[in-house]
Amino acid sequence: MLPVDVILKIAFLLPDFKDVFALIDIFRPQIAFEPLEDLYQLGLTHDHSSLWPRLTLDCSMNDTMSITLYESILKLYSHVLVVDSWYSVDWLKKHLNPTTTIEWMAQEFPVTLENIHDWADLPITRLHLSIERDTPQMWKKALPRMHHLKSLSIGNSSGDIEDIYKIVAESAQITELEVNPNGFEVDNAELQHLIEWFHRQPVRVYADSFTNWKLLDYDLRQELCDVMFNCPTLDRLALTDCDLDDMDFSEFSFSMNTLQLYEFCLWKDDLKLLASRLKDSKLTHLELDGYLVGDDFHGMDSMDYWDYTCGMECLFNALPSTSIKSLVITGDDVWTDNRFYLIPLLFPSNCRLEKLAANFSYSSPKSRIVEALALSIRKNHTLYEFHLLKSKISIVDMRLLIQSISDPSRRVKTKRLKWITRISHPEDESTLKSLEEFAIECGCEFVQEEGTETNY
């Protein structure tokens, strides 16, 4: 019989709660350890995602039975997620393991002048905060006092968030900042705070949206780009509405692992320059979205269109010489009738891509485009996952893609095709079921999800 502490260690190494549940079920008759039994009981009635791999606490669990069971198991966890206004700070302090860290999703900031010290003392390392126009300003006093905070996310906020940048720049421990403003425009002062932050801290994650990027001071924009694209500690950089076509790329090292550029303008020679800089970069994941959309695309003359296509060709040709293994291309359609010949460039003999996500046009693609893609995938021996994003496609063409990715000659351990459809255009369940069964017959996994921009 294994000791209880060994069983616990094994359980908390398992990534899937169904395996944890099965393990506890095996040992239940042989051990008398109340927290494991209580975890098992919660697993019978609660959503497993709220129990594993981290414990989620929200106000729906205020009933006496749930509270009692949670008090029993809380000390088992090294990380918990607190959603909204959990009813008691004192309860958390009493039952948390001293080494446990907290991720807090605060739609409302439950801090008053009287209890600000109680919240600041909690080991909150990650905070997701929504700031609306009517949000009390107490968050400005609370954030600088949260000395455990390393990651700050400001979600879809319509309030005045300019102080966020100053607080982050002056923080001694925040290394991750994600901002999704709704109406707020970054000013030159915020750029200066960001530059200071990159100079002072080993920044790991930065994501932001700039609706007025071109109106800001050029020298400050260039300096911010210099510190962002050359930051040696940066893991992920995500920029939205940040047109880089007037920035000097020549000194950018692209030292981050993940680069995500959304709703931006980067074309002609800029694409070629980006391709040349990526060859010496550390990038493993690249996302490009909206690089030519709307009037910018349709208003191009034939020479501009040709230059842009050549830019994409340079980018694709450069991929085997980079460290990029995951590529997402959305926005303007890469694989159109006029550019479908670019498809084989993604899959040369020395291809390194392991995961590819892309979208066709909003209307169903021509079969020859799908055939070209299917043929390229069939000949490839590195790609194990392909995501088709919010694209209409005939069932015949989808079956062709399933056959290509599952081809027996492809020497990859995993073969997976994910179809992310629009929530507004759900697919027929019987059709999806038939595609799943067909994929199993072919020897690959087919997954369909209704999704947003972020579940690539």
Automatic annotation (TrEMBL):
Top-rank lineage group of the source organism: Eukaryota
Alphabetized Gene3D superfamilies for the sequence: Ribonuclease Inhibitor
Alphabetized SUPFAM superfamilies for the sequence: RNI-like
Protein name as catalogued: F-box domain-containing protein
Gene source species: Aphanomyces euteiches
